[in-house]
Amino acid sequence: MNKQLILSKRPVGLPDADTWTLQETAIPQATEEGQIVVHQHYISLDPAMRGWMNDVRSYIPPVQIGEVMRAGSVGQVIESKNDKFKVGDFVSGWGGVQQYSLSDGQGWYQVMPDLAPLPTYIGTLGMPGLTAYFGILEVGKIKEGETVLVSGAAGAVGSVVGQIAKIKGCRVVGIAGGSEKCKYLTNELGFDAAIDYKNAEFSVYDAIKDTCPNGVDVYFDNVGGDILNTALTRINRHARIVICGAISQYNNTDSVQGPSNYLSLLVNRATMQGMVILDYAKDYQKGAMQMGMWMAQGKLKSKEDIYEGIENFHETFVRLFSGEKLGKLVLKVI
Amino acid sequence: MNKQLILSKRPVGLPDADTWTLQETAIPQATEEGQIVVHQHYISLDPAMRGWMNDVRSYIPPVQIGEVMRAGSVGQVIESKNDKFKVGDFVSGWGGVQQYSLSDGQGWYQVMPDLAPLPTYIGTLGMPGLTAYFGILEVGKIKEGETVLVSGAAGAVGSVVGQIAKIKGCRVVGIAGGSEKCKYLTNELGFDAAIDYKNAEFSVYDAIKDTCPNGVDVYFDNVGGDILNTALTRINRHARIVICGAISQYNNTDSVQGPSNYLSLLVNRATMQGMVILDYAKDYQKGAMQMGMWMAQGKLKSKEDIYEGIENFHETFVRLFSGEKLGKLVLKVI
């Protein structure tokens, strides 16, 4: 049987367990030309999923009530009527929160479990890593010697952003919640400094001032809210702010907090630019190959925090927002 | 004697009349090599002046208490120890709110009263016009056929922004306060539509939706606040938002209103970029010449709203914020 998680209502605020319903259906079969069936091993859990649950116009249509919850995934082809895939291939795509997915193969691509563990392909070598790669290079336009500040720095995107900025010769400061994550950034990933925003002993403002003595040239924002607003006060002339996400705001039940310091953009002739990874599809392969090489050279580290069982989706999902995880959050569903 | 207006205190909120003190001093004399004395004819009144009165880090140092209030001006050289200027030359520069200014000539440049009336050189052919020119072309990067929305559209900057966008083949919609200004935009300046934000019969949201049926490609913002936040909901993919000013926020006594819809930048992969005209100094002449040609061809209209008497500075200045003026606000001080 195929266990799958169906969106059963639109959440208000942080989704509760009733937001989804677990159901069992028959394992799907490839009946039409071009179809493939993937036996899914790992499901990607990402903050963006929260946005897909709202019934608003966005960069992709919302998940409809009654549909399988959208998610990236990685698994193995068990049936194929598609010339591009053969049974036994390992593939990654938008398989959704379920154990078996049926599709026309669109958006799926082959991955190599010999080169990197499967979960890496939905992490550092998948959408989060590619988001970091194109975000910091194409939107952030980092240059050697610049100071890069990144929030959500211990997360799947932020940790890669910071490591790429180090590879490119920048001074890198990460903002994360808790001393464990901060130690991970400086001791394991080579960040120049880390700011624990949950530490009440100092303000984030003072901490940025201390750790970025030459100001901030590029701020990569995954969190929004107060941290974005504070970062705006420390940017340099011609700074670039990459708006990748706003995890602090996704479960708001009232309106999103706007950055009241946005006029710092004017004073500093700075740019705030939003990004969506889907725009870089034609260059995914190039980005993934580059990151694979950096991983092979030991310059780029990937960490996944893996939980097990599709039944545990809800309690795993909320870790995205409580921060109780380290690295890329993954659910093993096989 | 030289009447001059001295900043006597830092205002909180809208400046009151006691913010400045009128004093009379001797007419200055050029005693050192390089100095010039300018008999000032017209003083430029601009929203940015409000920002210069706050004791905060910004793109230029604040005006100090006891200093002559900073302002752009245009007048005639009456004494010169500077090779670049001779007595009788008409010049524009940062002469401040006074009748005679002494300087080393830095930042002053000659203007031609035969080609355009003197007040034009602190309006459409001066900083406001150049701000519009470089803002909409270099930051807004308008392309033929795009929809351009501009706030503060009947003002010194906004009116030029809209006209340049029309010259470049865009659909142009202006936002202004009051039916007189809106009629001016559509009847005299050739805007495709105008939105009266003071008209309670419709919302600005609905009005933008109606007048920009294909969405907004470039939004040029002079006002900030609710109008910026509403405009963010109607932008197209890859839209550019030019942050030129935020007149609705300059007299706030509590914090600036941040745009709570800023995540529209992410959804639409859009860019919000601040600008300061000082960055384009090397290209001022090119911009002014181009605009002079457009004026000569009748494609670009310039309107100044001229008040008289340095004694009336305060009551004229507050018109910037009440909106009781049409076109570029100028004070004749000769």
Q: Can you walk through the features of this model?
A:
Two copies of one chain form a homodimer. With 334 residues, chain A is α/β, with parallel strands linked by helices. Chain A contains ten helices and 15 strands. In chain A, β8, α3 (158-167) and β9 (171-176) form a beta-alpha-beta unit. The longest helix of chain A has 13 residues, at 127-139. Chains A and B meet through α7 and β13 of A and α7 and β13 of B.
Write the layout of secondary structure elements.
2 copies of one chain form a homodimer.
Chain A: E1 2-7, E2 20-25, E3 36-44, H1 48-52, E4 73-80, E5 90-93, E6 100-103, E7 109-110, H2 127-139, E8 147-151, H3 158-167, E9 171-176, H4 179-188, E10 193-196, H5 204-211, E11 216-221, H6 225-231, E12 235-243, H7 264-267, E13 271-274, H8 284-296, E14 304-308, H9 313-317, H10 319-322, E15 328-332
Parallel strand pairs in A: 8-9, 8-11, 9-10, 11-12, 12-13, 14-15
Antiparallel strand pairs in A: 1-2, 3-4, 3-6, 3-15, 4-5, 5-7
Helix pairs in contact in A: 2-3, 2-8
